[in-house]
Amino acid sequence: MTNQAAPTERAGQSNAPQGSERSHTLVVIADDQHGALDRIVGVLRRRRARLQSFALGRSELPNVVRITVVMNDSEVGVEQLVEQLRKIVNVRQIVNLSSEHTVVRELALIKVNGASSHFNEIVELGHLFGAHVVDVAQETVTLEVTGNEEKVEKLVSLLQDYGIREVARTGRLAMARGAADL
Amino acid sequence: MQTAATITQQPEIAQISSAGSLRETGPLHDEARELTGSQILCEALIREGVELLFGYPGGAIMPFYDALTSYPALHHVLVRHEQGAAHAADGYARATGKVGVCVATSGPGATNLVTGLATAYMDSTPVVALTGQVARPFIGRDAFQETDVLGVTQPITKHNYLVQRVEDLADIVREAFQLALSGRPGPVLIDVPKDIQFSKTLYRPSTRLSSNEYARAARTQQPSPAAIARAAQLIAEAQRPLIMSGHGVILANAWSELQAFAEKTNIPVITTLLGLSGFPETHPLAIGMPGMHGPAHVNRAIGVADLIIGVGLRFDDRVTGKASEFAPRARFIHIDIDPAEMHKVKPAAVPIVSDAKAALKALVEAVEPGDHRTWISEIRNNEAQDQDHIAAIPRNTVHPDPISILEAIRAETHGDAIIVTDVGQHQMWTARHYTWTRPNSHITSGGLGTMGFALPAAMGVKMGVPDATVWVVAGDGGIQMNIQELATLKQEGLAIKVAIMNNGYLGMVRQWQHFFHSGNYSETPITGPDYVQLAAAYGLTGMHVTRHEEVAEAVHQAMEKEGTVIIDFVIESEANVYPMVAPGSAITNMIEETEESTGHD
Asked: What is the pTM of this model?
C-alpha cells in the first residue's frame, strides 16, 4: 500500500529465501493512549513493512484498540516486525493470524453510475454477492458488500462496466475461529 | 545505583512544613499533600534518586524552574545549549548506570535535545528528558514555541508522554524512570504542558515498584536452560570460537562474568567499539576491536572462526561490513536482552534473550573448561606479523602523533582515567590504541556517531563520577560543535582535561574522500580558534603543542593544573586510520597501511 518498491535487503531478511513473501495478518491490541497509534504506524514505516491494509477500531475492552495489519512479507521479516512492535509500551499483544482457522472479512462501499437503464442489473449483480443497496440517487447506486478481499475485488471488477465513481474499503479484519481467543 | 535498601529505608515521617509543604532535603513523604505539578515533578525526581539535572529554562518550563529553587537536593546544571544537556545526561548515565536527566523548554528547547536523545537511543543509555509544552488550550494551535515534541521524538525514544492531567504526573515520572532503565535501556521523554505545571492536586508518591527494583526484576529473568545447554554444546564442539562483547556487557555490569566465561572456556575476546573497557585489554585473551577500523588480525580471525558468541551487541554494519560475508564459517550464539535483535543481521543458531550478566553466569556453569591455545597462537602470530609490518613503516616524528598522546594520557593517569571521545579519526585511534583496563572507562557515541558529543558528555561523566580523572579526546571539527559548554564547565568548577587532535581537517571525512572520492577534499579543510586564547576567554587554561617531544610534558602539566585544561595538539594533517574496510565490503577485505600511503607530509 505504501511501499511498492522492489524487495531489498532489510533487517530480519538475512535468512529469508527470495520470493518467500506472502500475506500476513497481524492483530495488534494496544492501549488507546496518546501517541500509541503514531508509534505503531511509525515502527511499521521505519522498519519498512510492506503494508497492504491497516484497520483500526475499538475492541471488547474499554480504552483498548484492535488493529488489523496486513502485510506482504517473508516469515522472518514479519517476525522481526512483530518483535519491534512488541517493544512499544502501549502494545499489549500481537498475534499473527495467518492460519486457515481465521475468519477474514472486509467491508466495502461501492458507488456506481446507476442510470435507470442499468439500475436493475447493478442491484441483481450486487445480490449475487450478498451486497445491499445503501443509497440510491438520481445518478448513482451505492452498494455495501462484506466478505474476503477476493469477493470484494470480484464485485468491484464486475461493476467497472457501469462506471465506478468511488470505492471505500475498510481493510481486512480478522478473528481466530472457535474458542481460540487471542 | 541507588539500592532498594536505601529506598525502603527512607523514614516515613511526614515533615510537612509551612506554606507549599516544601522540604529542604531528606525523607520522602507518604502523606498526601496539595502540590503544584512543578512541585510534584521535583518530588518525583527526588524519589527516583535524581540529584543532577542538566537543562536550560524557557517560557513553557518556567513554573518547573520556579519550583526548583525550593528543592536544593536537585542540583541543576545550566548548560549553554540544550544539546549539551542531553549529551551530559547521556554521559552521566553511561558512567554511573543511573538515569541521566535533562530539561528543556518547548519548541526550540525540545528540538535541540533531539540529537542527544537519538544518540542515547542508538547506544541504549537510560535518559529521561523533561520538556515544557505550551498550555493545554494552546496545543494544536501553532502557539508560540509549540512543537509536536511527541511526534518529533517518537522514533528516537523508547517511549514518550504528553501529560494530560496533573493527577497522572507522579505515576508518569515513576514509569518513565522504570522504562528508561529496564530491559534494553533508552531515553524516555515527558512533555509537560505549562498549565499542568501550575495546577494543583493532592500528591501522593507513586507506589509503583521503583525503577531500580524494576530493572533488577527484569534482569533476574533467567535465560532458558535449553538454550544454555545448546550453547554449551556448540562451545564444546568449536575449534575456532570467538567471544564478541558489546555494550550490553557494560550496561549489565557483567565484566567479571565475561572474564570468568572467557577464562573457563579459553576463548579469545573481541570487544566492539561500545564494548571497549568491558574486558581488560591487558588480559591474554583480549584480542581487540572488530570491524571497519579493527586491526587486521581480529577481522581475519572472524573470517575463519567457526563459532561467534555475541554478548550484548547488535552486529552493527560498522562491525560486520558486508553482513552476508561476515564470519562466513561461523555459527552464532547471540545473547541480547532485546528479542528484536535476534536474527536481525545474522541468524543465530542459539538465540538467548537475556541480560548479559545472567546469561554469562549460566554459561560459566554450563560449559566445560576449554583449551584453545593453538587457535590463540594463530591469532597472535597474525597480530605479530601485522605489527612488524606496521613498525617498518617510517613515521613522521616531528608532530605529536595520536598514539603517543594516548600513551601519555594513559601513563599520566595510570589507566584510571575515564576517556570520552568524539567522533572521527581520533575516536578510532583512541579506541584502538588506548589500552583499556578500567571497567567502563571508554565513553563514546557509537551508533549515531554524534560529533560534538564528547565535551558535554564528559561534563556528565565528571559529575557522575567526581573522583575520576576525565579526559576528552576530540578532533578539531567535533570540539567546535559544542564548544560553548566550556562556559558550563567553568561555572560548575569542573576539571576536565581536553586533548584536541588538531589536523586542520574533518579528518575522517577527508580520509573517505582520499579513498573513495578521488582525493577531492570537498569542504573538509577547517580552521579553528586559537585554543589557548579561547580557553583564557572562558577563564580556563589552554596549551598549544606542536612537537612530538612535548607531548608527555604537556599532559603532565594539564594534570597538574587545576580546573579544565585544553591542549591543542597539532598532529600530522593527513594521517589516516588503518586498516580500513570500505563500507559494504567484507571485513576481511581491508585497506592496509603501506609505505606509500603515509607520504602526506
From this structure: 0.91
